């Protein structure tokens, strides 16, 4: 798994070298609609080799119908670049402190346009331009998207039994306070990568979700614990100073 994480870092480094994203700031309600005609910093690369089937901005046919743009992800199976269904956003609008902002889930609309059922997961990491990630976590439970699904609202929580699980040593709270890259990928198994697959996935309206005021009490034991851990760590640091 360490080799896979290093490969993932090289993928990130290639992305930054080829097309560095514009500076942005994670915020509550962050939403990628792809209406600007771009992929909004979502990209793919592998070990310096560009993906032969990179993400595409499709100008019509999203969940809103005619003239609703969406992001098309593709995978061609086999081995090498383009073999897996995955897309990453590094150093852009999805980098930041999820814990302080109270973000509890990532929501998006998705459609399975291929002939293979998909198991969608999130991966959170903290790589920098000069170093591979030291912390990584992935969705413990995937969202199962069948063939011919039609546009479906997907919710992938960050906390709780179906939330993120650590793939490395270290704490989830530490990772979520300084996330620099998130990835959406297909994998039936809990891991930091998925298997080769021939697939097509449409994605739209990727949104940073926070609990509604009326339900916040039910969402939060995991978030409350993580916030408490962070406050205690900060207090201990101040006492040492």
Structural class by secondary-structure content: alpha+beta
Order of helices and strands: HEEEEEEEHEEEEEEHEEHH
Largest sheet: 7 strands, antiparallel
Overall shape = globular
Work out the count of structural domains: 1
Overview of the molecule:
It is a single chain. With 241 residues, the chain is of the alpha+beta class. The strands form three sheets. Strands 2, 7, 9, 10, 11, 13 and 14 form a seven-stranded antiparallel β-sheet that branches. Strands 1, 5, 6, 8, 12 and 15 form a six-stranded antiparallel β-sheet that branches. A two-stranded antiparallel ribbon has the order 3-4. The chain is globular, with a radius of gyration of 18 Å. Strand 3 and strand 4 (49-50) form a beta hairpin. Helices cover 21% and strands 30% of the residues. It has helices spanning 2-18, 98-101, 172-177, 216-219, 221-240; strands at residues 31-32, 42-43, 45-46, 49-50, 56-58, 70-76, 86-90, 105-112, 118-125, 136-139, 143-145, 152-157, 164-166, 181-186, 198-209. Mean pLDDT is 84; it is low at 5-22 and 214-227. The longest helix is centred in the C-terminal third of the chain and has 20 residues, at 221-240. It has five helices and 15 strands.
What's this entry about, in short?
It is built from five helices and 15 strands.
């Amino acid at each position: 798994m360490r080799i896979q994480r290093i490969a993932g870092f090289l993928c990130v480094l290639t992305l930054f070298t080829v097309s560095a994203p514009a500076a942005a700031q994670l915020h509550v309600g962050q939403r990628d609609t792809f209406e600007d005609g771009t992929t909004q910093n979502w990209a793919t690369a592998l070990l310096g080799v560009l993906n032969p089937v990179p993400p595409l901005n499709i100008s019509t046919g999203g969940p809103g119908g005619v003239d609703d743009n969406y992001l098309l992800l593709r995978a061609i199976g086999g081995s090498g670049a383009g073999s897996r269904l995955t897309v990453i956003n590094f150093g852009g609008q999805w980098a930041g402190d999820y814990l302080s902002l109270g973000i509890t889930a990532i929501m998006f609309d998705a459609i399975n346009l291929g002939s293979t059922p998909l198991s969608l997961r999130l991966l959170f990491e903290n790589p920098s331009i000069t170093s591979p990630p030291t912390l990584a976590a992935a969705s413990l439970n995937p969202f199962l998207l069948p063939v011919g699904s039609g546009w479906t609202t997907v919710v992938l929580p960050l906390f709780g039994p179906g939330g993120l699980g650590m793939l490395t040593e270290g704490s989830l709270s530490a990772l979520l306070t300084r996330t620099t890259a998130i990835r959406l990928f297909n994998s039936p198994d809990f891991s930091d990568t998925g298997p080769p697959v021939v697939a097509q996935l449409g994605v739209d309206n990727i949104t940073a979700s926070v609990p509604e005021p009326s339900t916040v009490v039910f969402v939060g034991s995991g978030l409350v614990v993580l916030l408490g851990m962070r406050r205690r760590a900060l207090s201990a640091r101040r006492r040492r100073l």
